[in-house]
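Hi V.,

You were right to ask for the full record rather than a summary. Here it is.
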Amino acid sequence: MNNWTSQTVSLTHLNEMEIKGVRGEDHEIDMLKVILRSAARLERVTITFKTKSKQHIRRFSSEVQSILKSHPSVNCKFYHWSGEPVLSA
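Predicted structure:
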């Protein structure tokens, strides 16, 4: 079985992305890691959650913020399914 989490794809021109419908699952974190590893010019990420679970939102946003410590040029914003900003991770 091919392990997609270790793959690198060519995203050389990607500088902004929006991810909608996030549920806070582990494979979504893995996907973001692949994107960050592959998009050296990435500056902004917007994540909108599909889940209403505060626990999933808190865990996911906290883990993303931890990952982004090694990508200080990336600004990431989180939003609830309703469009309201997530104020704290």
